[in-house]
Amino acid sequence: MNFIDNKRELDKYASAYAAEPPPHSLKNLAFKHYIELFRKYNVTGHALDFGCGVGYSTNFLKSIGFNSVGVDINPNMIELARKSDRTGTYQLIKNSKIPFDEKTFDLVFACFVLLEMSSLQQIENALVEINRVLKPGAHFTALVDNANMYKYNWSAINTDFPQNKNLKSGTKVKVEFIEEGFAIEDYYWCQEDYLKVMEKADFELLEICSPLADPNDGIDWKDEVRISPISLYLLKKS
Predict the structure, then answer these.
(1) Of 49, 86, 123, 144, whose CB is crowded by the most CB atoms within 10 A?
(2) How many domains does the chain have?
(3) Does the structure show a pLDDT above 90 at 7?
(4) Is 0.90 surpassed by the pTM of this model?
């Protein structure tokens, strides 16, 4: 297993992350439920993929009808996204500022991004900036881990590490991507803390989903069919 410092080794992280996630990834589990969630709340239009990585989630948004663009703080990720999606728009976030005007987007989508931030203040600052580029009444959604992720067995990732045993909000957690052969560290934040900073950033909570996998979909799931390791927050700009 190769450990990558995803905060400092930006080139290594981008290269390791470039492969399309396997069918049993938590991203794909979440994306299936996002289709239903967006339909339920009639979320459509111009979307910003905040923390787009190499563009996988940006292209997911395109595939379900959004006019989507991506932004990221990692220039290596942006370069790979542009190479794999020649017609897409991918921009680098500099000095924590999203490179778009205020009131531009109908949706901002953050897929496993907030858990990379080391403090609640950093999360709040990011949410305030996200709020800035959203139209009045537009939507923001965040896909994050929850406490279950560090207690059970999953198909695509391994979280059975000593540092994950005494889980507290704000602590570092380690996750191994099994098929990809590398591990990273992120931060665990509890639901109460997420909701606190979302409210401070002037968002109204609409729904929190913790989706389960379908045991009959032909994918070799493990505990995902009975316990969800992820949470999908859908919010509205107040």
Answers:
(1) 49
(2) 1
(3) no
(4) yes
